[in-house]
Amino acid sequence: MGTRRDFLKGVLAGGAAATAGAVATPVRARETRPRPPEALGLLYDATLCVGCKACVAACKEANHNPPEFSTVDHLWDTPLDTSGYTFNLIKMYRNGTMDAKDQETNGYAFMKTSCMHCGDPSCVSACPVSAMTKDPVTGVVGYNPDKCIGCRYCVAACPFGIPKYQYDSPTGRIGKCELCRHRHKDGHYSACAEVCPTGATLFGRTEDLLAEAKRRLAMKPGERNRFPRGRLRPAQEKMLQGKEDGKGAKMRLGWRHEPDQSYETPAGKYLQHVYGEKEYGGTQVLKLSAVNFEKVGMPKLPPDAAAALSETIQHTLYGNLVMPFAVLGAMTWVAKRNVKPDDDESDKGGS
Amino acid sequence: MGNRNEIFETSRKTLQEIEQRLEMPRREFLQFCATLAVTMGLPSGAEAAVAKAIEAAKRPSVIWLHFQECTGCSESLLRAEHPTLEKLILDVISLDYHETLMAAAGHQAEAARKEAMKANKGKYVLVVEGAIPTKNNGIYCKIGGHTAIDLVKECAADAAAVIAIGSCASWGGMPSTIPSISGADSSPTGSAGVAEVLGKSVVTIPGCPPNPYNFLATVVHFLTFGKLPEVDKLGRPKFAYSRLIHENCERRAHFDAGRFAMQFGDAGHRQGYCLYKLGCKGPETYANCSTLGFGDAGENNWPVGCGHPCIGCTEKGVGFQKPIHQVAKMLNVTPPLQYPRIVEEQGKAASFASAAAVAAVAGAAAGAAIMLTRNLGLSHAAEEAERAKDAGGAGKPAADKAQV
């Protein structure tokens, strides 16, 4: 007897009140999160890369990934892009006659394609469960297949197109670079940096790598300079003595002791830009190149992470359950408006 | 480096003795020891230990049995050049029984074997060359009235170490090849390797023939360290058989660049291109031919160096079994010298035919949907008409009720 009408009125009033309340309390926009201070990363210097692909082979081995074929005769591991089974790939920029390396017209250049380990990663933000995580200390963007539900939101979210799904497998998982975090406990760092013969891929703390990148940008092209290889040692490490780990290996700051591998070579013609320093709020993998970054496949990105914007919008809408009530209210109003009067009359007739 | 001084100081006298015994200049002897140490991948200075072991007065007794074989392994060993291997065979080790090399014959030869076995019980090294026939109780190979099976079992019983030299002794090799006639499930004589007949694993030095230095290094390892070298699951010493031929091949750069000889004598073949497409089994064969060469014929003189694909003679299931010009299976696949472009189009754009097919299906679906909704409307109208007819005929009460 009119109770439904009353109820609906109440709902509408309540929804409006809730909306008013929510609007009254302002939801603060989320800032782009910076890299953790001890974040680990890589510095890829395209001018040093000789395209030997030792890093591609080492990555496959370190991650136990099978080869992928794109040639008719299955002779080589020839992935065309990163995939669920290829986490690191050296691609080549080609132009015209390809006369010289690191030349934009009639030249060629190499570019490493792998996870950038964003300071504020979209894949982690998009993940509806907690399969994609960012380590609070090392900042490594890791993946846990046991938690993954296979929705592939991370695949769509990444601006670099890095997380890839193993579509061919009924129990597929996401494949992406995790900076060889499974090897860290043995004192091994990223396999790609470990094997790089020219130091084009260098492992270290992102902060140190950024300083190293700036040092390189200040070099005069062609001037002979020292370049480290393997792992970039922070300045204070030179004072530290290595310690035995009890398994026959000498460790320094948790990493396997290696002889100093630095060498002298002429500096390249760098573009005055460290890719990843500001892009997307800063990534842990940094890149140097002589050829325009967009031309070698690195997208132009704003200095704010998309995750910050999307989370601000989402959290505003869902803050205090505003959107659910608003939508429910609107739907109720539409439903009520569409109730036919003859329906009401037949109700009366029946009662 | 302390070890090296040892050679020059402590053992100068014994080295001089060796010089006389082996009729080999001291320098040459030390070079030989170093060669063996390097073959085994021993660290610098190990040649001193090798030299010491070889200069020990008592030469180990070696009994060498021949079964189903061509004596190629022995021949290969005899043709090793630096230093003269017969010195080693006769003076460094005591070769007490070897059918090709011994002067004795008949009962004398048998007596020499029995005597050596008795005198060096538990200390002699047994080397087996050739496969062992097992069909019909092994009657297809007899020496001195005994079958090969009996001989190998008798000699192995008291041996300190058993070494199978050559592919035949290692797993049966060429004699074990199953003929391609219907119904054949084994070779005509049921040839088997030493390990299979003895029922225990032995050190194998496969190859057709094997590099003599792989054999000698194994024997000298035994003399030096008192034990046989570390072996893989097929009994092959790891110092020689742990890497694929493909991994150290001098033509590997051509493989990675995709430059292949397509037929014997073509332009690529003459320029030393990769022999993979001619059937080279290097990618699935474990051996050190690509670093040590084949036999002792000199630099680059091995099948691949001469322009013939590797036939995989050291690999059971490859050599003598896969056709020589059948392409090999890749055991480890690495990236080539080709690069993907920054953006690679993957998959194919829709062809006209597939687009047309999709459009046709979509059109059919849309048409079906329209027809379905129209039919729904029709059936609803029909139902309404039916109800009205019912109401008009039988039911005044129903109409009344509706009006109330």
Walkthrough of the structure:
The complex is a heterodimer of chains A (351) and B (404). Chain A is an alpha+beta fold. Chain A contains ten helices and 15 strands. In chain A, the strands form six sheets. Chain A has a three-stranded mixed β-sheet with strand order 9-1-15. Chain A has a three-stranded mixed β-sheet with strand order 2-4-3, with no helix packed on it. A three-stranded antiparallel β-sheet of chain A has the order 11-12-13, with no helix packed on it. In chain A, α1 (3-24) packs antiparallel against α9 (322-337). The longest helix of chain A is centred in the first third of the chain and has 22 residues, at 3-24. Chain A is elongated. The N and C termini of chain A lie close together (10 Å). The mean pLDDT of chain A is 87. Chain B is an alpha/beta fold. Among the domains of chain B are: 58-240, Rossmann fold; 243-339, Cytochrome-c3 hydrogenase, C-terminal domain (Cytochrome-c3 Hydrogenase, Chain A, domain 2, Irregular). Chain B contains 17 helices and nine strands. Chain B has helices at residues 2-9, 12-22, 26-39, 46-55, 72-78, 85-92, 106-119, 148-157, 166-171, 194-198, 212-225, 238-241, 252-257, 267-270, 289-292, 352-393, 396-403; strands at residues 61-66, 94-98, 125-129, 132-133, 142-143, 146-147, 161-165, 191-192, 203-205. In chain B, the strands form three sheets. Chain B has a five-stranded parallel β-sheet, with helices on both faces. Chain B has a two-stranded antiparallel ribbon with strand order 4-8. In chain B, α1 (2-9) runs parallel beside α4, α3 (26-39) packs across α4 (46-55) and α4 crosses α11. Chain B starts with a helix and ends with a helix. The chains are: A alpha+beta (351), B alpha/beta (404). At the A-B interface, β2 of A face loops of B.
